[in-house]
Design goal:
The chain has 137 residues and is mainly alpha-helical. The chain contains seven helices and no strands. α6 runs antiparallel to α7. The longest helix is centred in the last third of the chain and has 28 residues.
């Protein structure tokens, strides 16, 4: 199944928009269960609020319910799943690089920061982004 392949490369946290993350988490919840993923079951999961536990925002869940009719009519092809996943993943990495660069700049401008230690730490954190797409341990 195309979603099995995609899940190997991305997670909900890779989506910039909390609404998209909520929809993805709802799809994953359905995949983990015994049921299939279709517009009706997806709407049911979104309306139940069970994905709120994952990303913590009822506002995103409500917006996802409102967005669902547009999503189910959007043409998506299983053979393009890898391309879709790669696009989401690369933009996620770009956002993490940007966030880390801002964090590093803020630390560099702090006179109390050891610049040699900061350089070593920044190199390690950027390497982690390159290697895994995340700086989280």
């Amino acid at each position: 199944m195309a979603r099995d392949t995609i899940r190997k490369h991305i997670s909900g946290a890779d989506f910039a928009d909390p609404v998209h993350q909520t929809v993805w988490e709802a799809i994953c919840a359905l995949d983990r269960g015994a049921g299939g993923v279709d517009p009706s079951s997806l709407l049911s999961v979104l309306q139940s609020g069970s994905t709120v536990a994952v990303n913590g925002t009822r506002q995103a869940m409500r917006a996802a319910v409102e967005m669902l009719p547009s999503l189910v009519t959007w043409p998506a092809f299983p053979e393009n799943a890898g391309t879709y996943a790669e696009t989401v993943r690369l933009w996620s990495v770009r956002r993490r690089i940007s966030t880390e660069a801002i964090r590093t700049q803020q630390l560099a401008l702090n006179p109390a920061t050891d610049p040699v230690g900061l350089a070593a730490n920044a190199a390690a954190r950027f390497t982690a982004i390159r290697d895994t797409g995340s700086t989280e341990d």
